[in-house]
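Write out this protein's structure.
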Amino acid sequence: MLITCLNIARFSLANIVKITDIQGIKQTRFIYFGYTIKQDSKMRQRFEQQMTLGTIPIGETKITTKKRSGKLPDLCAALKEIFITPEWNERLFAILESRVMSGKKRTGRPGMDLWQVFVLAQARLLLNTSYEDLHHIANNDHLIRQIMGVEKGFGYERHEFRYQNIIDNVSLLDDETVRELNQVILEFGHEVFKKKEEAALRLKTDSFVVESNVHFPTDYNLLWDSARKCLDMVGKFQQKYPWISGWRKKHDWYRQMKNAMRAVGKASSSGGKGKEERIKQAVRYYLTKARALREKLMDSELPVIDEMDTMLLLNLMRYMKFLDKFIDLLDRRVLQGEQIPHDEKVFSIFEEYTEWITKGKLSPNVELGKKLAITTDQYNLIVDYRIMENQSDSEMVKPIAEALASSYNIRSWSFDKGFWHKENKALLEKHIDKVVIPKKGKCNKLEQAEEEHRSFKLLRNKHSAVESNINELEHRGLDRCPDKSYDHFRRYVGLAVAAYNLRRIGQELIAIRRKQEMAERELRAAA
């Protein structure tokens, strides 16, 4: 790597620690302001902050210690501490390199640095914002740009991030990578919060629903979705091969199918005499059009010349299967009067993982998405999170207990009634001193005495703190996931947990610094 005269003046030769050759890749390390900058010849860099004239080092980023300063200073305080501490810096980058750069060629188009990818992924979830707003923040927010190591002083040329570049790079993180990063963040948080290394944890577990980005499902509007996507696939073939015949009136098919769907909806929502017959008449017409469309799709001859054509055809076949399914379900439910079993229902043709969840609440009485079980400690850090796959709360206790009981010293653990089962309580009592799981239904004398004990009541009252943790998580983006596909849903959940933990850690770091500043002021005043 070439070092300019200006850079030599800033670093000096004494700053060059070592040049090594690892797996054939030359690496140069510098120590500057207490943190390591690593540069190599790979396509993507760990972090490459060019210490040229005007560049503001990450270690010199000023974080305000004022109260009510917003969410970003809390996040940036934690990120700065991770970056300037060699232990956490090395562990975080080791995970990112092993996951993001695994199997990648050493040459090619340079991407964003791994540190910039990590920072922007956390900022997106912390603010619960869109990629459009994230693009604006990456290019205009002074604090975030300093933490990413791209900010320069006034008058110097600025580095600008492109919108698509941000989307492509932030989406490189997968669920497994984020889980490993969360473990490092959690250990870092416990080092910040714990006054004593052997301090035992007091855990709380609860569950809530993370909604997927779907509309409210009915069989007739899902039938319209299926028909619309089938026509979309045909349109893509038409765009590529304009000579395809038989679909001159494609837009008329859109219109007829949508009008038929709206007629069914209008008949279902209206009242008056003869409502049932009006619904059946509208459904018969709707199904006639849907079956006619299906027959036309089956008779179509679409060219398959390259891989893109194959993918389009596979997508068309997938949507045609949904078309068949909802024709059948609508026929059976309305015309034949059959009650459809729950396991046959599909709640979205786009996010197929979506579940219909009823938690017995007045509002909302129904939620569409996935349940998430979280476990927090006395520092309000999330030590475990699990997406529930058609599981009840009581089924989650065993896997969570097996994972955490062997990893942490746990003093107490509280749950709500939904997690109750005698086997769960027996399992937890083998490893934990105080277990708080209120029993469902009537208690016997021994159970009644246990639940009326002062320590049980105290821990049960403190359990409600997990509700505030859930509320903050929902503000970190876990009210509704905008990302598409189940893999991205899982990653989104993990990033939200990481952003939540980082903000909690940052708040504590700022509080510690604020106390230090107050103590310094008092000393100066006394002198």
